[in-house]
Design a protein that fits this description.
The structure is a homodimer of 312-residue chains.
Chain A (H helix, E strand, L loop, with lengths): L3 H16 L13 E3 L6 E9 L10 H17 L4 E11 L5 H17 L4 E8 L3 E9 L16 E5 L4 H10 L8 H4 L5 H10 L2 E6 L4 H12 L2 E5 L9 H8 L3 H5 L8 E5 L4 H6 L4 E8 L4 E4 L4 E3 L6
Parallel strand pairs in A: 3-4, 8-11
Antiparallel strand pairs in A: 1-2, 2-5, 3-5, 6-9, 6-10, 7-9, 8-10, 11-12
Chain lengths: 312, 312
């Protein structure tokens, strides 16, 4: 079930790591990088959304701009960082109306404002429609949460709920009414939750779910060299998932496991330190346990399946 | 003499500033942004090079990657910052061979290494060929040099020499031998010079010459609300300028004033503090003086012309 695009991305990511030097701090391979500086670690990441791939039917330019900011802010959130500022690099089709460009930037600024940060600069060139957003943040003395670090016996948990971005997408595609498109059009990164999780001291790994639960679980398992048992019945179901399932027959696991666009945090924590999580007043659901296995598994009442592709 | 592209860029830059909030520290409008943090100011910038616009005949993918890094590192140099790390966001044509992608990244890494820094992360999407490089740096306690701050009576100076990137370009276009293309293909940002200039305490404004001397002078004059008198005879002539002029008739001012790609620093300094510049052992040429006027002027033996477009 690996797409050509995914194969290309995985191969090129590995290939790129082979041609660049490994930096001090933390380089490619996690949600954000950790850049050492005299004033403390700087957390930084960049991600691009493109007109071709991240611009679903019904999305406005403001929402594309919001999403570009949200995607990168979410990569800071996964480390537990506080956003300090954003930079935007746009490549825009020459025939794009300048008001659409301003709408993109206004949407990006609105998302920055929602997380108490700002756009600090950028660059605009002609191209075929991409918005790259760099997010810069600070741990303010806390330790960044990484994908590696999960240990067998740790609890697996997720913030918020799963599948509402996918449900919003299918509702538009299939003309189903009564399903909110908010998660799809203006995703909300879990900044406060990331800060609380990293403050708790009990979290052993964390990732954001931009690429879906299966892919997120696979990344943590691969980086931590562990497996996971996740239980379908434990998964918190997002708005609209049930409606899209019953009206259009889209499988719930396709929306909740294999679809991206939910900017929730997937994390593991030391079960002996679970009290510290409750102390930090974080809204999360326990969905499984870390195992000695070599892949994340999804458990149903009557079966157990590898979730997506194993990491081995 | 303003191109449509320039008009569009200027209009959109102004338009963007109208729709985003002004951040604390220093936002859009200088070579880099200054992002306040608990650990001290973070200097950051992003710039993109595209296959369509920054990929002259004869350039290799490694050189495009080098250039992408150099352009952003140069924006740090103009502030006087030390590079701490780079991030790369690539949008690549689906038919691009992955080895070309690795060449781009290897070139970017080689430039990072030349300035004692690293690539910390990135993102690759399908698109039509753009490399956006974010550079993050630190002032290490020094004050950043801005475009504003030039005062009438200050001396105008430039590092290195002018026109060699343009000469390299025309030599390839017009098949002229004996002209080095080094400045064009692997530009060298003036990081050590920027650090020394910001350490001196005598510099009142600074900008890099990525867009040419005329445009750089216009930017400083506009931001500082001053004019400049620059003398053609004082300009340090880059390698190949004379050859291209004599063999192909390209005017020297077109190469030295109106062409981009020279990653030198243009700066102004308080003439009473000039000794501090000599103490810092910086290789520079004095090219003029800051005036009360409303534009930068270029002076010849027998005439005086507005250089490019005034800022008023």
């Amino acid at each position: 079930m690996v797409s050509l695009k995914e194969l290309w991305e995985r191969e090129t990511i590995d290939g790129i790591r082979n041609v660049i030097r490994k930096p001090p701090g933390l380089g490619p391979g996690d949600d954000s990088a950790v850049i050492p500086s005299l004033g403390g670690d700087i957390i930084a990441c960049v991600d691009s959304v493109t007109f071709a791939r991240h611009f679903p039917k019904g999305m406005k330019y403001e929402e594309l701009g919001w999403t570009a900011a949200a995607v990168s802010i979410s990569d800071l959130a996964a480390m537990g960082a506080v956003p300090l500022g954003l930079l935007a690099a746009l490549t825009m089709p020459p025939d794009l109306d300048s008001s659409s460009l301003y709408d993109i930037m206004a949407g990006m600024d609105a998302c920055a404002e929602a997380f108490d940060t700002y756009i600090y600069g950028g660059d605009t060139k002609f191209g075929c429609g991409a918005v790259s957003c760099t997010a810069i943040g600070s741990m303010e003395g806390r330790k960044p949460m990484l994908r590696s670090g999960a240990k067998p016996g740790d609890i697996v948990a997720v913030t918020g709920s799963l599948g509402s971005a996918a449900a919003g997408f299918f509702a538009i595609e299939k003309n189903i009414s009564g399903v909110p498109a908010t998660s799809l059009m203006t995703p909300v990164p879990r900044v406060a939750e990331g800060i609380a999780l990293s403050s708790s001291g009990g979290v052993t790994s964390c990732i954001d779910l931009s690429d879906g639960l299966a892919e997120g679980a696979r990344s943590i398992c691969g980086a931590s060299r562990v497996g996971m048992d996740i239980h379908m019945d434990f998964l918190p179901e997002g708005d609209g998932v049930d409606t899209v399932f019953s009206k259009a027959g889209v499988r719930k696991e396709d929306m909740m496991l294999y679809w991206g666009g939910d900017y929730e945090l997937l994390f593991t924590f030391d079960k002996d330190k679970r009290e510290t999580l409750y102390d930090h007043d974080i809204d999360f659901s326990i969905i499984g346990i870390v195992t000695n296995d070599h892949a994340p598994y999804i458990n149903y009442e009557d079966k157990r399946e590898v979730m997506g592709n194993g990491w081995y």
